[in-house]
Design goal:
The complex is a heterodimer of chains A (about 625) and B (about 230). Chain A is an alpha/beta fold. In chain A, about 30% of the residues lie in helices and about 20% in strands. Chain A has 17 helices and 27 strands. The mean pLDDT of chain A is about 90. Chain B is α+β, with helices and mostly antiparallel strands and about 230 residues long. Chain B is about 35% helix and about 10% strand. Chain B has helices at about 10-15, 30-35, 40, 50-55, 60-65, 75-80, 90-100, 125, 165-170, 180-195, and strands at about 110-115, 135-140, 145-155, 175. Chain B starts with 10 loop residues before the first helix and ends in a 32-residue tail after the last helix. The chains are: A alpha/beta (about 625), B alpha+beta (about 230).
Chain lengths: ~625, ~230
């Protein structure tokens, strides 16, 4: 850390928050709030005279509130840069610190927060994680029983720079404990709180046991566990070592911790799977290995940086296996536990990877992006005529569309990720998506429904979930109806209502609207945009008198090949259950309405030509009997 | 899976398909339920974690013929603590349902009704936490000569847990669980009190003299006036 701070090209800004982020990869503008320390950074030499004279003591956050700090103090003794700051919530403004500082004149109560804009090329998010508060688990008694402590508290007790100088004592009486229980999975792997595994608790539980066993060889230490997870290099050997030096491992999750009110000793009730019976053991102290949870302000960070959060609130990576350090937003990278719980080696690896990715941005003059981006037909955009609109700008999850009344909407190509939400939402067909233009998609629909459309199941699939889901159904050899005809678009947000009107106008038997589950969307909020539209369509078609199930909306993930096959088969069963004459009659009956609704789909440029071309192709193929 | 044909329903499937049994497979055998179980304190052979595992492994015969599956009192101390949200008492109920279908008999004491003493008031029906009692009209002979049609409680042997809530509620002590009838318990209390000797701390609190000396045998002692 000291090396980093000294590096001529590294600028460390502590006690600073990111307020706003604008721009795009390589060209971010970031507004920073340098919070006031009430101490001049350039004058403070870290001597600590001010803290000596300060009369106010507050709980020390760094010592998990086990020890006090002064109202003017450093966050922790290894702080870089070593600067004192005033906790204004506690300060009584006696100005003793100002006096103590003397000629340096570093303490200054007139300093205010400073807002600065910086040009930034790329951003690495490494905001870490927070600890789960075990006091919400009533059966473990944390907060009620003084000798039930968390792992972080033990960590501070056992630290030679900690509040007890490395002496592990019971909070109730200050005596060294002779028997210590370590309870794993407190709040993690627990559907009531955090379903996920917190990854590193097994190892830090064993680490604490080994360290304490070295310091206090007589101490009886038992680790209560459900599974011990030691998947990384050298971890299993460390686990072996803990067993060798006499740490007890008890296979069973405690159901209750009770306290002897006189001795403040604790009784841990659990099943011992190896003994096959319930045991109750007495301890002097219990350590809870609490779960790791996202930072409390993760939501704020995610909205400032426009990065999405996955299940549990962790920041979403671009791809879980291939791009774990990239954000869906170009130029923003993730490092460490903010992306998901991970231990130190994994965090360091991800941090280095993120740094090299960020360096790639800084060293490039040009930035390559996917060619699938939105483009505005400026002559069609009503905003250019001075009308109020901005629908596209609101639909964009990336803030890539600049809208100003009186000017045609403008797509910042570098920010566009190509979901196509704006294209489908634009009420005037004034935006198109390269490689997925209305003309191309309508031509595909026409070709797929060229022959016996009433037998076909036209399936719209999103590129990231339901398309791979259908792929998986195929590679896994799940049979599904051969009448299914798949159409790929990038996102359900791109699935324009016109496509469905057109499909039914052409006489499609059934149409499937499928995409990701809401939390899996590749485009942050593309799925909800499409889902809303699908709901509207469902209602419309129901009012028109369509047999329920002919238009179906399903969320299929890339792993749900069996679900995709099942959905298609159910649709086929539905089609089989409707007598053919009745189906044709229904299709014919709805054609005028569909025609009316689909009339605007021919407005965008190139549609006429594309459809003509499609018709010619189909005609030729039918002649050659390629299309069935 | 769509490519595999129908297979006969396994025992684990039977339990999974029963209401409350859906989460059976979520159990990862952490043992919290067993450690939390108050039944386990008195009957070590009862281990809910092991029963769940046996169901998952398809050990039908062993599970259904085991006396311990009838022991769960549905207090749900385990459910509140289960990290996977498995509703164990529902699974036990499902297992018992299957046992009942397959002709296994519950192995435990259940409430029994003394038809001569019962007035058919139905308070036991309301008291039963397991909905094991219902009133059904039946012909009974009273005082050796009179035959009368009365609504009498009928105890479902598969639902009754033998908790004794009905015995406590019954105003005429006409219902009871073998081994824990009103008078048996009173005699036990008396023996216990004699064994530990008088407690001076309690002498102020009870002024009433309880008559426990009148002869009473088994249920039906309501007629002898012992109950109230």
């Amino acid at each position: 850390m000291v090396d980093a701070a000294r590096h001529p090209k590294v600028d460390v800004r502590t006690y600073t928050e990111v307020e706003r982020v604008e721009g795009f990869v390589g060209n971010f503008k970031v507004q920073l709030r340098q919070k006031s320390r009430y101490v001049h950074a350039d004058r403070c030499n870290g001597c600590g005279e001010c803290a000596l004279v300060c009369p106010i003591e507050v709980p020390n956050y760094f010592d998990v509130n086990l020890a006090p700090r002064k109202a003017i103090d450093v966050a922790m003794s290894q702080s870089v840069p070593l600067l004192y700051n005033v906790d204004m919530d506690a300060c009584i403004e006696c100005y003793k610190c100002v006096e103590a500082c003397g000629k340096l004149e570093a303490v200054d109560f007139g300093i205010e927060d400073e807002l600065v804009w910086e040009d930034i090329g790329s951003i690495i998010v490494a905001t870490g994680y927070d600890h789960f508060d075990p006091s919400v688990i009533p059966e473990y008694g944390y907060g009620r029983f003084p000798n039930v402590v968390t792992a972080m508290e033990i960590e501070r007790f056992a630290n030679s720079a900690g509040p007890t100088a490395g002496n592990l004592v019971r909070p109730s009486d200050g005596v060294n404990p002779e028997r210590l229980a370590i309870v794993n999975c407190v709040g993690s792997r627990d559907k009531r709180f955090n379903p996920g595994c917190s990854n590193f608790c097994c190892m830090y539980g064993i680490k604490n046991a080994v360290l304490l066993k070295q310091a206090y060889p007589e101490m009886d230490i038992a680790i209560y566990y459900m599974d011990i997870r030691t998947p990384s290099k050298g971890y299993e050997e460390f686990y072996d070592r803990a067993r060798e030096i006499g740490v007890h491992f008890i296979h069973g999750r405690p159901s209750l911790i009770t306290e002897d009110p006189e001795t403040k000793n604790l009784y841990v009730h659990s099943e011992d799977m190896a003994l096959g019976r319930v045991i109750e053991r007495e301890y002097d102290m219990v350590m809870l290995s609490q779960a790791a949870v996202p930072q409390p302000d993760a939501d704020t960070v995610s909205s400032v940086l426009n990065i999405s959060q996955g299940p549990g609130g962790w920041f979403m990576e671009y791809h879980p296996k291939l791009r774990p350090m990239d954000c869906p937003t170009d130029g923003i990278f993730l490092a460490g536990a903010c992306q998901g719980v991970k231990d130190i080696p994994a965090s360091v690896a991800q941090g280095s990877a993120a740094a090299s990715r960020a360096g790639r941005v800084l060293h490039s003059d040009e930035w390559e992006i996917e060619p699938v981006v939105a483009v505005v037909w400026e002559d069609r955009c009503v905003s250019a005529d001075g009308k109020k609109c901005g629908v596209c700008s609101r639909a964009c999850p990336y803030g890539a569309i600049e809208y100003e009344q009186g000017k045609a909407a403008h797509v910042v190509t570098a920010k566009c990720h190509g979901c196509g939400g704006c294209v489908a939402e634009c009420p005037h067909n004034a935006i198109t998506q390269m490689h997925f233009t209305d003309a191309q998609i309508l031509a595909q629909i026409r070709a797929l429904l060229a022959k016996n459309p009433e037998e076909k199941i036209l399936a719209f699939r999103c590129n990231w979930c339901s398309y791979p889901g259908a792929d998986l159904a195929g590679t896994s050899h799940f049979d599904y109806s051969s009448n299914e005809r798949g159409m790929r678009v990038m996102c359900v947000a791109r699935m324009d209502a016109d496509f469905f009107y057109e499909a039914f106008r052409l006489g499609a038997g059934a149409v499937l609207f499928s995409g990701c589950h809401p939390q899996d969307c590749h485009y942050i909020t593309g799925q909800p945009v499409g889902a809303k539209r699908a709901e509207r369509l469902l209602k419309q078609f129901e009012r028109m008198g369509m047999t329920p199930g002919r238009f179906r909306v399903e969320w299929v993930s890339a792993a749900e090949g069996d679900k995709y096959a099942r959905v298609v088969n159910e649709m086929q069963e539905l089609l089989d259950s409707i007598p053919k004459e009745k189906l044709l009659e229904e299709i014919e009956g709805m054609k005028p309405e569909m025609e009316k609704r689909a009339r605007r789909m021919k407005e965008p440029p190139q549609v006429e030509e594309a459809l003509e071309f499609a018709d010619r192709m189909v005609e030729a193929m039918l002649k050659a009997e390629v299309v069935e | 899976m769509s490519h595999s044909g129908p297979t006969p329903e396994s025992f684990a499937d039977q339990v999974r398909n029963a209401p409350g049994g859906e989460k059976l497979d979520l159990c990862y055998s952490c043992g919290t339920c067993t450690a939390a179980c108050p039944i386990q304190w008195v009957e070590e052979a009862y281990n809910p974690r092991r029963i769940l595992k046996m169901v998952m492994m398809g050990m039908k015969e062993q599970v259904l013929s085991s006396p311990v599956v009838w022991l769960c009192s549905a207090c749900d101390l385990c459910y509140r603590r289960c990290p996977q949200g498995v509703h164990i008492s529902d699974i036990m109920k499902a297992i018992r349902g299957i046992a009942a279908q397959e002709g296994y008999e519950p192995v435990r004491a259940i409430a029994q009704v003394d038809e001569r003493a019962c007035s058919g008031c139905g308070m036991c029906v309301q008291a039963c936490p397991y909905q094991a009692i219902e009133l059904t009209p039946r012909w009974v002979t009273i005082q050796q000569v009179m035959r009368q049609r009365r609504a009498l409680p009928k105890v479902d042997k598969f639902l009754c847990q033998g908790c004794g809530a009905c015995t406590v509620t019954c105003p005429v002590s006409a219902i009871g669980v073998a081994g824990v009838e009103d008078d048996t318990v009173v005699v036990q209390i008396r023996e216990f009190a004699q064994a530990i000797g008088p407690n001076p701390a309690n002498s102020r609190t009870t002024g009433k003299k309880v008559d426990v000396d009148s002869p009473a045998e088994g249920i039906g002692s309501g007629l002898s006036g012992l109950g109230r």
